[in-house]
From TrEMBL:
Gene3D superfamilies: 3.40.50.2300. One of its GO terms (molecular function) is carbohydrate binding. One of its GO terms (cellular component) is cell envelope. It comes from Glycomyces algeriensis. Residues 39-301 form the Periplasmic binding protein domain. The lineage of its organism: Bacteria, Bacillati, Actinomycetota, Actinomycetes, Glycomycetales. It is found in: Cell envelope. It holds the Pfam family Peripla_BP_4. InterPro entries: Peripla_BP_I, SBP_2_dom. This is LacI family transcriptional regulator. The keyword Signal applies.
Length: 329
């Protein structure tokens, strides 16, 4: 439509118009002629320090790159995220970034974006494999690998535990990619290593401190803590909430029960320095600048990998203190 309106008013103006459309086929793709993009970002929510750091990283990187970022906080609610994506489609943004709260239920809205000619890039979390053709690429963590890292430490730490390792698990948001994959990767390694273990209980704490604490209180009421060897919490907040519940029950977290967390926030590392937990699998939220590169490539029509993992480490008790000052969130 834009090109049509410009037709007949001179080749120079037409070229300018095409540049504004990124040389696309008349859709809204391409960004401004200064290379700036209008980006619609449907974020999960603000449930954790990780999430806040991730939002900040993406907002700052967009600003630094001169892009216009339309940011919507989905409040951990898929319906809100779907509404945000539809709104971005109506606004004809250049590219949509979606951090899907859960893996399923995206087919229709992703199809709508494709029909509108607007590319979708997943940031952080993934969607089910059936929807793979409906997004361009995902930039984020390898959650299964994070689970395997946690499992590797647990299998080594409890290898000599002859009467079996009794495990509690605090899962992330039900149906989310990190909850599904951190669980799968963890138990994959325990099984592969032949650890003798029992899952005493496993419930979702929705990635928040409040729910993590509440679920841990229920675990303690139901099973007690005597004879429980390990708590595997899928993120820092749930682990920190659980630590409070354990202390309130008169036990010593990190000693009476060993604890693994995933993320590695300042508060998580501080708890490690204080001896309250035993292993941290890092999940890196600071991929804003990398995301801007990906978005620019996608809008330019360059080939991009279907998945770009961010780099992440692991830390045990001997490393907590030295690493604490390096934490960015
Ligand atoms: O681990 C957790 C957050 O999707 C990787 O979401 C992210 C997870 C992160 O709530 O703290």
């Amino acid at each position: 439509m834009f090109k049509k309106a410009l037709a007949g008013i001179g080749a120079g103006a037409l070229l300018l118009g095409m540049a504004a459309c990124g040389g696309g086929d008349g859709g809204s793709e391409g960004g401004g002629d200064d290379g700036s993009l209008v980006i619609g970002f449907a974020q999960v929510g603000a449930e954790s320090a990780w999430r806040t750091a991730n939002s900040t990283s993406i907002q700052e990187a967009a600003k630094a790159a001169g892009h216009d970022l339309k940011f919507v906080d989905g409040q951990q609610d898929q319906e809100k995220q779907i509404a945000a994506v539809r709104d971005f489609i109506n606004q004809q943004v250049d590219v949509i970034v979606l951090a899907p709260v859960v893996e399923t239920g995206w087919t229709d809205v992703l199809q709508e974006a494709e029909d509108a000619g607007i590319p979708v890039v997943l940031a952080d979390r993934g969607v089910e494999a059936a929807d793979e053709a409906l997004y361009v690429t995902r930039l984020g963590s390898d959650f299964a690998e994070e689970g395997r890292k946690a499992g590797t430490w647990a299998a080594e730490t409890f290898a000599a535990d002859a009467d079996g390792t009794r495990i509690l698990e605090l899962q992330g948001t039900t149906g989310s990619a990190p909850a599904n994959d951190r669980k799968a990767g963890f138990f994959e390694v325990l099984d592969a290593e032949g650890l003798n273990y029992e899952i005493v209980d496993s419930q979702s704490g929705n990635f928040t401190a409040e729910e993590g604490k509440a679920v841990m209180e229920t675990f303690i009421t139901t099973h007690g803590l005597d004879g429980i060897d390990l708590l595997y919490a899928h993120n820092d907040e749930m682990g920190l909430g659980a630590i409070q519940a354990i202390e309130e029950a008169g036990k010593v977290p990190g000693t009476d029960i060993q604890i693994i967390i995933v993320d590695g926030s300042t508060a998580g590392f501080q708890a490690g320095v204080d001896g309250k937990l035993n292993y941290i699998v890092e999940c890196n939220p600071a991929f804003g600048p990398q995301l801007m590169d990906v978005l620019e490539s996608v809008v330019a029509g360059d080939e991009v990998e279907k998945f770009t993992p961010v780099e992440e480490g692991v830390f045990d008790a001997t490393q907590f203190e030295a690493e604490l000052p390096n934490r960015q969130f």
